[in-house]
């Protein structure tokens, strides 16, 4: 037989930290710890959109140049990368744990892809 004594409910209550419990929140649901990062991620998205707006202006200036098709293809790729950034930035502040890390990785990869497309855009001749 075990030598340990049963623990009374009052001893268990005294052992837990004194925090007020919110009955509207599930205590097993992870806390959102990245909410304050939202402005940072919004800035990342804003930078992508500004770069895309500059590319759109250049595309409008090109007119009916023979190289317009190549620029339109690159612009579509830029738009796709920006959409990936926007999707992940929207979710990032609300995610926790591995989901946050996954979305952060997606943002980093989408920004890197956008940079690669812009390098090809800049190398393209009008």
Oligomer: single chain
Instruction: Return the string of H and E elements.
Output: HHHH
Radius of gyration: 25 Å
Give unreliable regions as ranges. Answer: none
The pLDDT mean sits at 83
Q: Which structural class matches the secondary elements?
A: mainly alpha
Question: What coarse outline follows from CA principal-axis ratios?
Answer: elongated
Strand content: under 5%
Q: What is the CA–CA distance across the termini?
A: 87 Å
Largest sheet, strands/sense/barrel: none
User: Percentage of helical residues?
Assistant: 55-70%
Number of helices: 4
Tell how many strands the DSSP assignment holds: 0
Describe this structure in words.
This protein is mostly helical and 126 residues long. 66% of the residues lie in helices and 0% in strands. The protein has helices spanning 9-15, 38-62, 68-91, 97-123. The mean pLDDT is 83.
Outline the secondary-structure elements.
Layout: H1 9-15, H2 38-62, H3 68-91, H4 97-123
Helix pairs in contact: 2-3, 3-4
List keywords for this structure.
0% strand; 126 residues; mainly alpha; 4 helices; single chain
Offer a quick outline of the entry:
The protein contains four helices and no strands. By secondary structure, the protein is an all-alpha fold. Helix 3 runs antiparallel to helix 4.
